[in-house]
Amino acid sequence: MSPYPNTSVSVRPGSERSASVVNEEIRDLWQRSGGLLSPDDEKEYQRLLVEWAAAAGTSVPAA
Questions:
Q1: Which tens digits make up the pLDDT trace of 17-52?
Q2: What domain count does the chain have?
Q3: Local structure of residue 11 (DSSP, 8 states)
Q4: Structural domain includes residue 52
């Protein structure tokens, strides 16, 4: 599993959540998964990383 999101993952249209809210969702995802992401969880994680980077005003490197 790559630590970097796939660049084809898009952020939900109209999503304007704060970086801290998205970060909390990322933490919850990892906690629920027990540290091992399923393929569906991996897709959600990548989407959340892109959303977090947008909210934080930074970029996420492509894999």
A1: 999 999 999 999 999 999 999 999 999 999 999 999
A2: 1
A3: P
A4: yes
